[in-house]
Amino acid sequence: MKKLRLILGDQLNLKHSWLVEKDHNTIYVLAEMRQESAYVKHHIQKVVAFFMAMRNFYTALQSRGHQALYFQITDGDNPQDLEKIIAFCIEKYKIEKFEYQFPDEYRLDQQLKTICSNLKIESEAFDSEHFYTTRHDLSDFFEGKKLLLMENFYRSMRKKHHLLMNGSTPVGNQWNFDADNRKKYKGEVPVPSEKNFHTNVSKVVAQIKEAGIITFGNIDLDNFSWPTSREQSFEVLDYFCKNLLKHFGDYEDAMHTDEKFLFHSRLSFAMNSKMLSPKEVLETVIAFYHDNEIEITISQVEGFVRQILGWREYIRGIYWKEMPDYAKMNVLQNKNKLPDFFWTGKTKMNCMSHAINQSLDEAYAHHIQRLMIIGNFTLLTQIHPDEVDAWYLGVYIDAIEWVEMPNTRGMSQYADGGIIATKPYVSSGSYINKMSNNCSKCHYNVKEKFGDKACPFNTLYWNFLDEKKEYFKGNQRMAMMMNLLNKMNPEEMYKIKVKANEIITNMDSY
Ligand code: FAD
Ligand code: SF4
Q: Is 334 in the pocket of ligand 2 (CB under 6 A)?
C-alpha cells in the first residue's frame, strides 16, 4: 500500500519507530508553510530555526534511504496550506493511505481530524513518541482532585520512571531542593560563554523575506546560535553538562544585566522541535551527575530534572485537559493593550529594557525574566491575556502553543483562575531588586511607591492588589498581602492609584 506520512515542523524525531525500516512504498512529507509562519507574527530567529531544523531533518531522512518530499517556502509548487499539500501529494503520488503523528497543538489536531474525515483514502494517527506522558495521563492522575499540584505529579513521575531514586527514596532524601535554587548572582563564579554554532543563515532569511512573511526581532546572519540538527542538539546538551550544570540549581531564579543566559541550558528549542527527547536529556544529565558527584550537588540536578520531568510534562497535561476553553480564559477581566515598547525595547525601566531587548535580540529570555519581569508587568498593568499570549507565542524560539499558553495565560497571567498557580505571580520592585542588579542602574527608585521617580512596579503592585481585592478575598495564599494592603495609609493609597492610572494610560512614556 502506498503511504504518505506527514511530519510537522515540531516533529523532528529521528528516533521515531516510523523510521526504523525503509519502505519504498512510504513517502515522508515536510513543508514550510505560510499557514504556520503567519498565524501569529513570529520572531525571525524562530522561523529560521524551524526551517533550518526541518531542512536538516529532511537531509537526514534522505541520507538514511527514506523517500521524502520537501516544500521550501519559496517553491513555486508549494500550496502553502496543510490541506492542499496533503491533497496535492495524494494525487501526484497515487497515495492509498495517509498517516500523521498526533500534533501537540489543539488547532492542528482539529485541522488534521477534519482533513482526514474529508479524505477518500484511509488515514491513521500515531503517537509522536516524544513525551514521558500521553496527552491524558495528567487528567487521569488528578481525576476527582480539586487542586492540580505540580509537586504531587512530579513525585509520581520520579517514582514511575525511577529517576533520581534510591529504591523508593529520593536521592538526597528530599524530593525538592527548590529552597536552594534562589541565589542572587553577583559574579562570584564566571558564566561560561554561550554555545554558538555561528551558522550563516542569509539564504533562509532572504527566502523568508521573498515569501512575504512578516517577522520581528533581530538576527545576526553570520552567527546563528541555535542548534538546528540532532547532532548540534547533542552538542548543546554536552555543553550544558560539562559547563553549566554545576551551578544550574543555585542560580535558576537569578537575573543579571551582563549575563543573558546565566547557567540555563537553552535546550528548549531542541526539545520542543523533538530533535532531542526529554528522556535523552534527563538520562544524559543524570549519568553525567553520577560520574561527577564530587563536583555536582544533587540540588543542581534535581532542579533541572524537576523542570523537564515535572513542569514540562505537567504543562502539556494541563493544556490537553483544559483546551479549548483555556484559550479564552480571562478571570481577572484584564483588557489593556500591550505598549509599543514590547516591539521596540524602548523603556526607562531597566529590568524591562533588559528583558525585552534580550528577547528581541536572542528570541530568548529565561524563566524568571519571562515570569517575574515581563509577565509581572503585563499582569500588573492588566493587559488582555490574548495580547500577552500572542507576544509570547511570537517572540520566543521555543514557543509552541501547548507549552506557551499554560505558562503565559495560566502561570504568569492567572487568567485561568488558579488552575496552575495558587496565587498570582506579582511582585513589587523589591523582588526584582533582591534577585538582580537591575535596580542600581535604573532611572527609577526601587524604594519609592509614588512620585516621579517611583519604581512603576511598586505603584502598580499596590494598585493591582486594590483593584483585584474582591476577586482574591477568599484566597488564603493572598491573605498576607491583603492584610498589608488594608493597613496602607489612605492618603498614600490615593496617590498610588492616581500614579498607577497615569502609568497604565501612558505606558510607553515609562
Ligand atoms: P532551562 O532553565 O535550562 O530549563 C530546562 C528545561 O526545562 C527547558 O528547556 C524546558 O524544556 C523545561 N522547562 C522549564 N520550565 C518549564 C515550564 N514552566 N514549562 C515547560 N517546560 C519548562 N517554555 C517553552 O518551552 N516554550 C514556551 O513558549 C514557554 N513560554 C513561557 C512563558 C512564560 C510566561 C513562562 C513563565 C515560562 C515559559 N516557558 C516556556 C518555560 C521556560 O521559561 C522555558 O522553558 C525556558 O526558559 C527555556 O530555556 P532553557 O531551555 O534555557 O531552560
Ligand atoms: Fe525595574 Fe523598578 Fe528596579 Fe527599575 S527600579 S529596574 S523599574 S524594579
A: no
* CATH number for domain 137-322, candidates 1.20.1250.20, 3.30.300.20, 1.25.40.80, 3.30.70.2470: 1.25.40.80
Looking at residue 339, the DSSP 8-state letter turns out to be P
Homologous superfamily of the 341-509 domain (CATH): DNA Cyclobutane Dipyrimidine Photolyase, subunit A, domain 3 (1.10.579.10)
Two domains, one topology: 3-126 and 137-322: no
Decide if pLDDT at 491 tops 80.
Answer: yes
What stretch of H or E contains 215?
strand 215-216
Instruction: Kindly state the cell numbers that stand for 199.
Output: 551558522
Measured distance CA(460)–CA(368) in Å, rounded: 19
Summarised one tens digit per residue, pLDDT across range 303-325 is 999 999 999 999 999 999 999 99
Which ligand 1 atom lies nearest to the CA of residue 268? 9
Q: Which atom of ligand 2 is nearest to the CA of 352?
A: 1
DSSP annotation string for 71-89: E-TT-TT---SHHHHHHHH
> What count of other Cβ atoms lies within 10 Å of the Cβ of residue 142?
18
Ligand closest to CA 427: 2
**Which amino acid, 98?**
F
Q: What is the pLDDT of residues 95-153, one digit of tens each?
A: 999 999 999 999 999 999 999 999 999 999 999 999 999 999 999 999 999 999 999 99
Distance 133 CA to ligand 1 centre (A): 18
Q: Which residue, by CA, sits nearest to atom 7 of ligand 2?
A: 349
Distance 367 CA to ligand 1 centre (A): 6
Residues with CB under 6 A from ligand 1: 264-268, 271-272, 307-308, 311-312, 315, 366-367, 370-371, 375, 392, 396, 398-399, 403-404, 407-408, 411-412
246: alpha, beta or left, given left = phi > 0 and alpha = psi -120 to 50? alpha
Spatial CA neighbour of 300 closest among 289, 290, 312 = 289
Any residues with CB less than 8 A from the CB of 366 and at least 6 apart, and which?
255, 261, 262, 264
3-state SS assignment for residue 68: strand
Residue nearest to atom 44 of ligand 1 (CA): 367
pTM of the predicted model as reported, rounded to 2 decimal places: 0.97
Ligand positioned closest to the Cα atom of 453: 2
| C-alpha to C-alpha distances, 227 to 94, 218, 263, nearest whole angstrom | 36, 17, 17
- Atom from ligand 2 closest to the CA of residue 350: 6
Q: Which tops the pLDDT comparison, 79 or 44? A: 44
**Domain residues of the chain, as ranges?**
3-126, 137-322, 341-509
Kindly state the helix (H) or strand (E) to which residue 209 belongs, with its residue range: helix 202-210
Ligand 2 and 431: CB distance under 6 A = no
The second-level CATH assignment, the architecture, of 3-126 is 3-Layer(aba) Sandwich (3.40)
